[in-house]
Amino acid sequence: MEKVNRQRLQSLLEQFASFGATGENGVTRLSLSREDIAARDKFIEVSEEIGMSVKVDDMGNLYATLSGKKDMPPIVMGSHLDSVKKGGRFDGTLGVVAGLEVVRTIVERNIETEHPITVMNFTNEEGARFDPAMMSSGVLAGKFAKEDMLLSADTEGVTFGQALEISGYEGEAGNRLREAAAFVELHIEQGPVLEHTGEEIGVVQGVMGMTCCEISLKGESNHAGTTPIPMRKDPMFAAAQVIVDLQRELKKLPEDLVYTIGRIQAHPNIHTVIPNEVTFTLEARHTSMDVVRQVERIIDRLPKTLERCEVTSRKLWGRETVEFDGAVVNAVSETAAELGLRTRNMYSGAGHDAQFIASYIPTAMIFVPSAKGYSHREDEYTSYEDCAQGADVLLNTVLKLDRNASTQEEKVLEEKSV
Fold first, then answer.
1. Could you tell me if 213 and 282 are in contact, meaning their C-beta atoms sit under 8 angstroms apart?
2. Contact at 8 Å (CB) between 85 and 28?
3. Is 115 known as a binding-site position?
4. How many helices, marked H, and strands, marked E, lie in the chain?
5. CA geometry: angle at 113 spanning 112 and 118, to 5°?
6. How does strand 309-319 pair with strand 209-218?
7. Is 126 annotated as contributing to ligand binding?
8. Dist CA 99 CA 43 (whole Å)
9. Which residue in 94, 41, 43, 87 sits closest to 64, CA to CA?
């Protein structure tokens, strides 16, 4: 089994961490910002140094490709270089940097692959500057319309289309990822499970389905000091009761259901005024869409009035569970076992570019442990040895997929010739 160069991988991760460094070991590298452009420039520099050719598509996605022995669809690795504000240095970046190290190792060991090998950097995965998240992979997969995405604006009023043009990274639609033998994304877990169980590699089966609903409670504003409690229509107390009731009901569902009250808003949100409306969101995720639907039914059964306040709800958005390709997932699992690593089959609760790419390309993901489960924060951390072990799995998975696909192609040709 091949292994990547540990010191070189760590060095390159640290170099990319300097682009948008916060001073607290984190990064702020919003999509198409100066910091992101600097990271993109570095990506191209390293890719060309390795001997890869680089293309850019019309969404700003970067493709660095090492030629194969045959003119075949590529095997693709990739993730994203953009971050959230005051985010971590490993989220997304690991998958891109490890991909480059994988190709460098292939070149260094004089390994000839049948397929071209491509490393991708997806534009605006985080959605921290431009809504929605996973924007460019969504466009590639036909989930989002490019025309709509170009109009998405940041807090300063700059549209994605304008930022893309200014960045110098607006390429050709003809360079889009349209077919590939496989796509594999290495990523930090962004959760505590692998660290807690002592397992080194997460073999990702797919991405959890989810629903996000908004619950609103309407009461009546009045003076906080002069309105007797029995005469109030206070939606804040009603909201508190609804949240407690929801918690009680949701606990009856499978314990691996995850749910969050993520946003609470009170209007007018003044300490001397009884609010006239309180809204909050409830987001729930599970691998079984039946469980997700049960959550939605629990919300639908909320009382129409509570504490003399009107209660309404609406679904904001949701997604179906995405199942990854069995053959590619098996290649990851077999490779990790051959490397002697402890593995865990798991689903991702977070969204990733891989979930959209999976709609038209055989896809899998590899997770490595996140210390304390921390992510989207400056103290996000994955040990460099864990990063390297993930890169080892990525490297040998790519080589296994190359061999397997080549063998399959030979069988097809033999059958045609008979």
1. yes
2. yes
3. no
4. 12, 16
5. 120
6. antiparallel
7. yes
8. 11
9. 43
Residue type, 396: N
**Dist CA 274 CA 272 (whole Å):** 7
How big is the chain, counted in residues?
418
The answer to whether 376 is a known ligand-binding residue is: yes
CA distances from 40 to 36, 45, 59 (A): 6, 9, 14
- CA distance readout (Å), 359 to 25, 118, 120, 180, 235: 35, 19, 17, 12, 43
Tell how strand 343-348 and strand 117-122 pair up. Answer: unpaired
- pLDDT tens across the length of the chain (418 residues): 999 999 999 999 999 999 999 989 999 999 999 999 999 999 999 999 999 999 999 999 999 999 999 999 999 999 999 999 999 999 999 999 999 999 999 999 999 999 999 999 999 999 999 999 999 999 999 999 999 999 999 999 999 999 999 999 999 999 999 999 999 999 999 999 999 999 999 999 999 999 999 999 999 999 999 999 999 999 999 999 999 999 999 999 999 999 999 899 999 999 999 999 999 999 999 999 999 999 999 999 999 999 999 999 999 999 999 999 999 999 999 999 999 999 999 999 999 999 999 999 999 999 999 999 999 999 999 999 999 999 999 999 999 999 987 666 666 556 656 5
Contact between 276 and 221 under an 8 Å Cβ cutoff? The reply is: yes
Report whether 267 belongs to an annotated binding site: no
Read off the DSSP letter of residue 373: G
| Contact present, 295 and 254 (Cβ < 8 Å) | no
Query: What residues pair up with 282 in beta bridges, in sequence order?
Result: 213, 261
SS3 91: coil
Residue with tokens 């534009």: 123
Cβ atoms < 10 Å from Cβ of 305: 11
Q: Three-class SS string for 315-352?
A: EEEEECCEECCHHHHHHHHHHHHHCCCCEEEEEECCCC
**Among candidate residues 328, 403, 397, 329, the one with its CA nearest the CA of residue 72:** 403
Residue 73 has what DSSP assignment?
P
Rounded to 10 degrees, the C-alpha dihedral 239/243/248/251 comes to 160
286 is in an annotated binding site: no
Structural domains in the chain, sorted by start: 6-207+321-416 (3.40.630.10), 209-319 (3.30.70.360)
Assigned token pair, 408: 């399959």
| β-pair type (363-368, 201-207) | antiparallel
- Encoded amino acid at 193, one letter: V
Distance CA 146, CA 266 (A): 35
Whose tokens are 């003119």? That residue is: 71
